[in-house]
Specification:
The longest helix is centred in the C-terminal third of the chain and has 26 residues. The chain is of the alpha/beta class. The chain starts with 9 loop residues before the first strand and ends with a helix. Helices cover 46% and strands 18% of the residues. Helix 14 packs across helix 18.
């Protein structure tokens, strides 16, 4: 019987050849694919191998056991690394040390685990001391290894090791780790071993192979670590991808002043400027830069001190950018003057940088317009639409740090991630202030308006993660003395306590005392050019949801091509109007209601005139009154008494009428067209206001396109009745004004029955607009106001992939698709759009494109996002078509 072939789980790289390549991110993860690609490009990379994401997934399927054959492949490839590097793992004369790093398909900075200097024990330490003649370096490497192994593999609180280190520095009267002597570190190692044994009840492992086996498992386990899961949830990264594990020969940046380490970006990740943006440390290991343990030096220091290595690095970063045709994030180490590249991946960047890089690379002929448009994440545009500090405001600058992530943020000071999350749940805006952030802070960083750290550089954890989130961040603000436990910080003699307001300017690095006003940025230059490219490709029109002329003006600046939803009820809540609305609702006869409606008519007409004026001939879809009437009535006796006095009716009578309006489930009750049918005078007033406003323009030969939308239709006869009412009133008004208005009458498809009978309803409708907020509620049979209590848990445990009120669910989508097909069988060119909140969600916009809608409508600040998502939908579709043609 033939022996079953063992799956390949390990891919080698080294000596200018790699078994993998850059396109294998799914299997090798981003880091492993990058190492393979650099090796194949003949770039100096320490030899190593990558254990695949498949091995990680098999590990979890088997109940956290390595898959059959994997360990044997690890040993086989370790021998190849030994041969390539001329050293042996665990050897008492010439020992090989390795690093073990995670590396998923998508970059997750700091979210998973890394262990350096693996292979050290008492025997290999002696050999390394003899080989290097540098006793201090070896003891420093070992104490780092114990810290990482203890905290990552065995779950010991890292602070136990850090406190011992701080105590040793205090005892020796030094400030920096580098000032501790070899003897100090030797003593510290013994303390670390005691901490390890007390915490685990076992001795620190001395067998290098046992160390390696345990660390590989720890890297796999980190895929489902709390911070990694939270990061994936925040960034919509699937949980079933798994992580690869990269084992690589160690190279050392802490061998002395002819060694160093650094991280960099091939262009400025904040501005997009074409310049090498990098930081380094001399006589340090890479974790010191990335973790923000020491504030790094500008890359020019490397040029001054290690010129040859700098010149080689300069050539390599240019070569890599030209090869990948994108801005890259790189890591490097210089060991005794020789440069080694440890990582390359597509770099995270701000929205402003992403735009500039995309536009510049088109100019440089590295990429074309299509690639540029596909390269920007639609959600990232949000960063460009955030407020900035009002230039007219008087400010008091407390301190200045590094401008790590641009924009501005105002909030109350908090000192822990947990406090930031709790405050956000209560609707409070906060600034997270930390000495330095760590991956455990990810939830608090997401909840905060901005992040401020005392330590760390432009490539620290806080900086990289904040830029990826689009959060304002000021890092490395050394003037701050932070007391996290006591919850205050000082700058010179000034004390700022938890709950005090500060403002951050992430563009300048300024930390400002107090609550400073912010302003909305003007979108010009690169943004305008990029959005023109976007509009060349998209088919879907993009409208806005706007209820005022102010909202409409903002929307026009962002490129709105009309209004897809004007909610007339929002116009009723102004103080001077609400009393008339309440008077109308609480009146007990037709005459009383009409009297109140006469007060509202000129107000509604004035609103529509202002909106038509701003929209300048673009279509305006106006939804007639939709919510239940009880939403407008007073809820306290005090308010009812005041209203009774103004209406000159008895209080008890009003109270009884108010009680009669109460409904058990108002969202499925007397609302939408049901109100228009039972109280037709309400819809008559609204239609009259719309058509009168339109006639004012029509008489002046100014184009207006009102689209009158009847809400919550579930049966064709409801729409038939409301259409007849609309046409009758419109005819009366046009006759009185002696002019014609080009108006249409349509409905919202927001009930499953409406979607299922869309062919019948189409006989009475000129257009459809999908009200996906209510359609989602009625499809799922849940209330979005109450679903927040359990929907996050549904997503967390995998029942739902996305919140159905943010991204269209496939069940709701199926009803929409059916309604489009049925409606267009009756009216072939029937205009159809979407006006729920989903109209600004990129995934939902792509779905709307696929089912053939004519437009999406969203809030003003999401219009650029919807425009970009619509263009990307076209380009992705063409890309799939081209791929299918090429495989025929």
């Amino acid at each position: 019987m033939a022996k079953k072939a063992v799956k390949k789980y390990v891919y080698f790289f080294g000596g200018g050849k790699a078994e993998g390549r850059g396109a294998m991110k799914n299997l090798l993860g981003g880091k492993g694919a990058g190492l393979a690609e650099m090796t194949n490009l003949k770039i100096p990379v320490p030899a190593g191998f990558t254990i695949t994401t498949e091995a990680c997934n098999e590990y979890f399927k088997a109940g956290k056991k390595h898959p059959p054959g994997m360990w044997e492949q690890v040993i086989k490839n370790l021998k190849k690394v030994e041969k390539e590097m001329g050293m042996k793992f665990g050897d008492p004369v010439n020992p090989l040390l390795v690093s073990v790093r995670s590396g998923a398909k998508f970059s997750m900075p700091g979210m998973m685990d890394t262990v350096l200097n693996l292979g050290l024990n008492e025997i290999t330490m002696k050999a390394l001391i003899k080989k290097t003649g540098n006793e201090r370096f070896v003891y420093d490497a070992y104490r780092r290894f114990i810290t990482m192994f203890g905290s990552i593999v065995m779950g010991i609180d890292r602070q136990k090791f850090e406190k011992a280190l701080e105590a040793m520095k205090e005892k020796k009267g030094v400030r920096l780790d580098t000032e501790l002597t070899a003897e100090d570190l030797k003593e510290l190692i013994e303390e670390y071993k005691v901490i390890y044994k007390k915490s685990t009840r076992e001795d620190f492992p001395i067998d290098p192979y046992e160390q390696l086996n345990k660390v590989i498992s720890a890297v796999f386990n980190s895929w489902f670590g709390e911070r990694a899961v939270k990061y994936r949830n925040l960034n919509n990264i699937p949980h079933d991808l798994g992580t690869a594990c990269n084992i690589q020969a160690m190279v050392f940046g802490n061998l002395g002043d002819n060694s160093g380490t650094g991280v960099g970006f091939t262009r400025d990740p904040s501005t997009g400027q074409k310049r090498f943006f990098a930081e380094c440390l001399i006589n340090a290991q890479g974790e010191d830069v990335v973790a923000g343990i020491r504030t790094p030096l500008h890359i020019e220091e490397l040029k001054k001190r290690l010129t040859q290595a700098y010149n080689e690095l300069n050539k390599i970063y240019r070569k890599l950018e030209k090869h990948y045709k994108d801005m890259l994030d790189i890591e490097f180490t210089v060991q005794e003057g020789k440069l080694y590249m440890l990582q390359t991946r597509v770099g995270k960047r701000t929205a402003a940088a992403a735009l500039k890089i995309a536009i510049d690379m088109v100019k440089e002929k590295l990429i074309d317009k299509k690639t540029a448009v596909l390269r920007i994440d639609p959600e990232q545009l949000n960063q460009l639409l955030h407020p900035m500090i009002d230039p007219k405001a008087e400010i008091r600058v407390l301190a200045k740090g590094l401008p790590a992530s641009p924009g501005a943020a105002v909030g109350k000071v908090v000192f822990t991630a947990e406090d930031a999350e709790h405050a956000a749940e209560k609707g409070e805006k906060v600034i997270l202030v930390r000495t330095e952030t760590s991956p455990e802070d990810i939830g608090g960083m997401h909840a905060a308006q901005g992040i401020l750290t005392a330590r760390g550089g432009m490539t620290s954890h806080a900086a990289v993660v904040a830029r990826g989130m689009g959060k304002c961040c000021v890092a490395g603000c050394g003037a701050l003395n932070i007391h996290e436990v006591q919850k205050y910080f000082t700058v010179n003699d000034l004390e700022v306590k938890e709950g005090d307001y500060i403002t951050l300017n992430g563009t300048t690095g300024e930390v400002i005392l107090g609550e400073i006003p912010l302003v909305v940025p003007e979108l010009t230059g690169d943004f305008g050019k990029f959005m023109k490219w976007v509009d060349e490709f998209r088919r879907l029109k993009v409208r806005t949801n706007a209820d005022t002329s102010g909202d409409s003006e903002v929307a026009r600046k962002f490129g709105a091509e009309g209004i897809g939803l004007c909610r007339t009820e929002h116009m009723f809540f102004a103080p001077e109007r609400i009393s008339a609305v309440r008077e109308m609702i609480l009146a007990d006869d037709l005459e009383g209601r009409k009297k109140a409606l006469e007060k509202l008519l000129p107000m509604q007409k004035g609103d529509f005139i202002e909106i038509f004026k701003v929209m300048k001939g673009l279509p305006v879809t106006i939804r007639l009154l939709d919510p239940p009437l009880h939403e407008f009535v007073p809820h306290t006796d005090e308010e009812l008494r005041a209203l009774a006095t103004s209406m000159e009716v008895p209080f008890e009578k009003l109270k009884a009428r108010n009680k009669a309006l109460h409904e058990v489930n108002p969202m499925l009750g007397h609302r939408g067209c049901r109100v228009g049918i039972t109280y037709p005078e309400i819809y008559e007033m609204q239609v009259r206001a719309i058509i009168e406003a339109a006639c004012e323009f029509s008489k002046q030969k100014i184009k207006v396109i009102p689209e009158i939308m009847i809400p919550l239709v579930g049966h064709v006869n409801e729409l038939k009745m409301m259409r007849e009412l609309t046409v009758r009133i419109s005819d009366q008004v046009q006759k009185a004004y002696n002019t014609k208005v080009n108006y249409t009458v349509g409905t919202m498809i927001e009930l499953p029955r409406a979607a299922l009978t869309a062919d019948e309803i189409a006989t009475q409708a000129d257009f459809y607009s999908f009200g996906t907020n209510d359609l989602t509620q009625t499809t799922f049979g849940l209330s979005r106001d109450d679903a927040g209590r359990f929907l996050p848990y549904y997503i967390e445990i995998g029942i739902l992939e996305d919140d159905p009120f943010i991204t269209l669910d496939n069940g709701t989508g199926l009803l929409m698709k059916l309604a489009v097909e049925k409606g267009r069988k009756v009216r072939k060119k029937m205009k159809m759009g979407i006006c729920g909140e989903h109209g600004g969600d990129p995934k939902s916009v792509e779905f709307c494109h696929k089912i053939g809608l004519d437009y999406v409508s969203c809030s003003p600040y999401r219009i650029p996002i919807a425009r970009l998502a619509a263009a990307q939908a076209v380009l992705k579709e063409k890309s799939k078509e081209d791929l299918s043609k090429s495989t025929v």
